[in-house]
Amino acid sequence: VTAGPDRTSAVFAALADPTRRRVVESLSQAGESTATELASGMPVTRQAVTKHLQALADAGLVTTRREGREVRYRLTPSPMRGAVRWMATVGAEWDDRLEALRSELRRH
Amino acid sequence: VYSATVKLQVSLAPSAVIRNQMVARAGGGSGDPPPGLGEPLPLDDVEVRRSALLDAPPAVVWESVTRPNRLSGWLGGAVDIELRPGGRGSVRRADGALRRIRVEAVEPQHRLAFRWWPFEAPDSLRPGGASRVELLLEEAPGGTRLTVTERPAPGPMVLSAAEGES
User: Fold this and answer.
1) Residues of B132-149 as b/e, b for ≥16 C-beta within 10 angstroms?
2) Which of A55, B91, B147, B156 could pair with B51 in a Cys bridge, judged by C-beta atoms 3.0 to 4.6 Å apart?
3) Residues B105-118: pLDDT tens digits?
4) Please, which residues bridge with residue B152 across strands?
């Protein structure tokens, strides 16, 4: 993946969506996976996950490989990958925490 | 070296707006590291920022972000924290994982900054590793705007060395 201003914008736009951050987080933990495997750990359909994977692939974050009838996805190796993982993981944690904080405030 | 900023708004609830901002600058290409274990971060300037409009005044939000029993209700585990610069603390998750906290700044009802790191890997800069968190509270129409910023930061080994501890 070549890095440049356009590519970087595409990366951040792709990571703007909370579900896509979850997908990146899952891929970084589970390694290469199918859309079905990824969807099993998330409250979204396989179709929705496939759409998000496509957006991530368009941004160069995800690489696809066909194996028989399955398409397998993995994070694209790049100098940005460490940064992408960090932001996807830590961003998803704060999404959760801020939701929990809202609930906590409603209880008081 | 280049940088990019993307700002966007995501609606989470009718009254809730969260503004996300992610900023990163990529370092030089260091080749492709082996997969699986996660790589050291090539990032001198990566951060995650979340901003949420909360339906409570700053004084109430401050309690939620500083009192151990309130923090334990949302930060992800049982929280213990000594609320002063240099104060120690910890977060113990339900699965037993322990994260240590070192408080850096306390400005009542306005700002709390701390470092935290996993007990087992105190100086890792990988996801879940050592980082610095800042919580900023600002009075806003209808409540409080809370802005959270987290970025990788040196862990306790570096902090201890800087403080001359053994």
Assistant:
1) bbbbbbeeeeebbbbbbb
2) B147
3) 999 999 999 999 99
4) B131
Do residues B142 and B164 touch, judged by C-beta distance below 8 A?
A: no
Q: What's CA B105's distance to the chain center, in Å?
A: 13
Token pair in block for residue B4: 């990019």
CA distance B62 to B139: 11
pLDDT, tens digit (0-9, with 9 covering 90-100), for B96-148? 999 999 999 999 999 999 999 998 887 777 767 889 999 999 999 999 999 99
> Chain A interface, mutation test: which of B74, B99, B144, B150, most A Cβ atoms within 10 Å?
B74
Structure tokens at B59: 């004084």
- The reported pTM is 0.65
Q: How far apart are CA A83 and CA A74, in angstroms?
A: 16
